[in-house]
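so my prof wants the structure for this chain in the tokens format not the other one, which i didnt know existed until like an hour ago. anyway here's the sequence
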Amino acid sequence: MKASSDILGNFDFSSWFSFWHEHLDSAGKGNESWAIRMQYLNEMFLLYEKLNNEICKYHNKYQSWCWIEDNESGGDAVFLHTPNPNENNYPFLERVVEIGDLDKYQNIIEFVERNGFKWVRTENGFTVYKEGYGDTLIAL
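here's what i got, hopefully its the right format
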């Protein structure tokens, strides 16, 4: 598992970010059990908190979120996004989809909410964030 401290070791917060993201479980080990996936999600949430505590010192316009894929732990990631020279794509606005049947995702939803995060259902997963961190990314 990639530790948040390892990822942040050489991180340049003064730079711009165009959908920068990090997959902490790129090998998909969390697919083996919910207990293992929770370990990776805990580390991802820790990284999210650390990133937000630092980036606000350098950028007054930024977005941050976590992506939790429905059925593939290797796709889970934490994101940072700022105005950038690559493309005129700031702010990014996530499209919310119809909620549908969420019973099979109750473990994810309960885990996210227990950790103080908000969530919206998006295509193939959940966009997870905390209010007050950066600019909104939810298109209403």
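also thought this was worth mentioning. The beta strands are 20-22, 63-69, 77-81, 118-122, 125-129.
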